[in-house]
Design goal:
The chain is an alpha+beta fold. Helices cover 42% and strands 28% of the residues.
Amino acid sequence: MRLGTLRACDFNGPDYQFLDIHPAAQDALLAGHLQSLQVHPGILLHGVEARDLRTLNTCSPAEPGLHIVVVLEGSVDVSFGEHALKMEVATAGSRPVQACGAIIHTRPGDLFRRRWKQGKFERKISLSLEPEWLADLCQADKAAPELLRTWIANQQLAIQQWQPSPRAIAVAEQIIQLAREGTSPLLLLSRTLELMHEALQSLASIARPPSQALGVREHQRLARLKQLLDSGDDASRSLGELAQEVGLSTSALQRQFRQIYGSSIDDYRRAQRLDHARHMLEQTGCSVLEVAHTAGYTSAANFSTAFKRRFGMSPKLVRGKV
């Protein structure tokens, strides 16, 4: 783990290029921490929680293989070859609303470009699967997504954005915590494989026949619903009332919401309440019991269980850091 301020000399590899400016070796470029960890032969975990201190552009060779990225806070502005990838986690006040993700397949010789912007913050993890390990996986697993097999067979540079489910976001948070602690390598591997499985399953869903795809009108309806859920104004509304709001039956609403966002509406709302609860624990002096009641839990024990499942740590531990 690299912790603290990273300077230009820390990025001064033989193939690392500063494209528009050439900072001095001791110029500070990044504040925060970076982490790289070999979780399993063929699987490398990268973690970033840092803020850009300069505005610039850099270029370096991309590691060939499959990369699964989950952005938990902030934004990412990069390119692989000629394919640009921009991801940003929306916020409500000062807290992130929902993480976002991407799956990237790269080949030997592809270039990775990063666009830095002074003050830009990002907190993310990425799993890099080496080509040999990936090929063995596809050979051993007959259920591996056809889209992934196509990428590998055609040596295709590809980027596919995906929406991690609340469970996947919770797993990503737990991976960060486990990697920092360094005490449970088996549990870390288990959570890494779980996150990888959901990401690859999202590729399988992309290959569904076009007849199962939702149209523009359905996407607009669900986007309007998500905006309502993100605003917090839905707290007193039942599923039936939400369905009526967007002009769908309850069953169609639930099915389409899961198809687009990878989560049930109840799970999405629960995740939002827990996100808000974490914000309260971090920013206020409220007790765990008070926060539990605000999040809709009558039992502090049930709240603690749900909180730990989502964030990989207890609410008392989060409050203790205030």
